[in-house]
């Protein structure tokens, strides 16, 4: 019985740890107005495919191939990149994710100048696809 309890404790420790270790500051909150921003490309499979291409070029180094926040460059940062599979990201609205991509927060750059609005929405779509 003691072995089962020890195993459960170790399992929970690493399960909870893997969610928090790779999640950027839990206090990074978008303004409430971001919740109201609607995704004009929601459900658009071509936009999602384009989002994947952009993600692989610009995001994978920090956020990792599967979006877990474990990319090679991200592992060297003091503030770890967001884990897109974490519950706290899944519950964010598309507008909040779009706002974060647009504005950034150090060490993540803001992409308002680098990517068009459509490209940022395409990334939102792809991030949602990673969750599935």
Automatic annotation (TrEMBL):
Keywords for this protein: Heme, Iron, Metal-binding, Signal
Signal sequence annotation: 1-23
SUPFAM superfamilies: Cytochrome c
Presence of the UniProt keyword DNA-binding in the record: no
InterPro entries associated with the record: Cyt_c-like_dom (IPR009056), Cyt_c-like_dom_sf (IPR036909)
Cytochrome c domain location: 46-131
A molecular function (GO) term: heme binding
PANTHER family: LIPOPROTEIN-RELATED, QUINOL:CYTOCHROME C OXIDOREDUCTASE MEMBRANE PROTEIN
Protein name: Cytochrome C oxidase, cbb3-type, subunit III
